[in-house]
Amino acid sequence: MHLKTHIAVRVTLVALMAAACDKGAPPAPPRLPPTPVGVVDVSTATLPQQYEFVGQVQPFRRVDVRSRVEGIVVDRPFVEGSFVQKGQVLYKLDQIKYEAAYRTALARLENAKRTLARLEPLLPKHAVAQQDVDNARSDVELNQAQTDNAKKDLDDTTIRAEIAGLVGRARLELGARVTGPADLLTTIDELNQVYVTFHPSSQQLLAWQRDPEARKLLMPGDNGIAVHVALPDGSLLPRTGRINFMAPSLDSASGTQEFRARFENADRRLLPGQFVSVRLEGFKRPSAIAVPQRAVQQGLGRQFVYALGPGDSVIVKDVKPGPWSGNLWLIDSGLVAGDRVIVDGIQKIAPGRVVKPTPAAP
After folding, report:
1. Boundaries of domain holding 195
2. What is the CATH number of the domain that holds 164?
3. What is the DSSP letter of 120?
4. pTM for this structure?
5. Per the structure, how many domains does the chain have?
6. HEC letters along the chain
7. Could you tell me the end-to-end alpha-carbon distance of the chain, in angstroms, rounded to an integer?
8. 49-85 pLDDT, tens per residue?
């Protein structure tokens, strides 16, 4: 075989082998279409703004039940935690000593009255001196005062409710010795109305002070802002309260100011000591930027949104969210008008990937 023929055969075999290899190679994978996502265009608007704080319920009035006299407890007829009426008997103390003191004082009073009754008719006849009659009258007044005091001590051995309300735990039981007003027997809370206190921070107070409309809303009285309360189970109390007190100074330990709102509470759904969520509605934020709550993501100690960059590629923007406004989240910083924020389809995207934007569903 000639050299040229041998070379031609080898070239032909190499070409055939290359063709066979090309025929068996897998095709290149097709490029995926851009992921569809729902997008909102960021703009500024005047939006309602809600503030939320942790509040605590306090009784409209709390009365400490104490005894004016000392003695041994011989009866405690009230049921702890029940509703008591004004004048209802709560405690009875041993009366023997006070009954004896009252009878003694009463006997002295009667004797002084009889002495005065004998002397007064003799005065016109000059049978007695004016000084004797004056002394007898003074004795009657003195013994009357002592008798009244002894009667009051006797009455005070029966301890009654000063107001109607919910009675607390009994601090002393039968057989215990009451030493006087220093001993707390129980408490009564008036609950037909209650107070709810909450504490805005000094930063929040400064923001309100800079807003004339906010200052008007926070003025105590019936024309101020309505205060809503959410109970621990999340349900909303079906009535609103009004702010009736603001502390004149800030708490130096916490840097907060105490606000107090009054609520009607005939159904006693609010109980003293209960923690609730206080919501202030009626404020407005002008030129606000907001996005749907579902657009804000959290991770690695930061909050961010996915937005559209050049060529509809996904970029990440760190944001500082503020309070909520309905189903929107007010954004304090991180976004400007004109930004396009991804709201729907977030689970299928990643930074740098090109997406297909469409208007997000409301």
Report:
1. 51-59+191-285
2. 2.40.50.100
3. G
4. 0.69
5. 3
6. CCHHHHHHHHHHHHHHHHHHHHHHCCCCCCCCCCEEEEEEECCEEEEEEEEEEEEEEEEEEEEEEECCCCEEEEECCCCCCCEECCCCEEEEECCHHHHHHHHHHHHHHHHHHHHHHHHHHHCCCCCCCHHHHHHHHHHHHHHHHHHHHHHHHHHCCEEECCCCEEECCCCCCCCCEECCCCCEEEEEEEEEEEEEEECCEHHHHHHHHCCHHHHHHCCCCCCCCEEEEECCCCCECCCCEEEEEECCCCCCCCCECCEEEEEECCCCCCCCCCEEEEEEEEEEEEEEEEEEHHHCEEECCEEEEEEECHHHEEEEEECEEEEEECCEEEEEECCCCCCEEEEECHHHCCCCCEEEEEECCC
7. 83
8. 888 999 999 999 999 999 999 999 999 999 999 999 9
Residue type, 179: T
How many residues appear in the chain? 362
Average confidence (pLDDT) over 153-173:
95
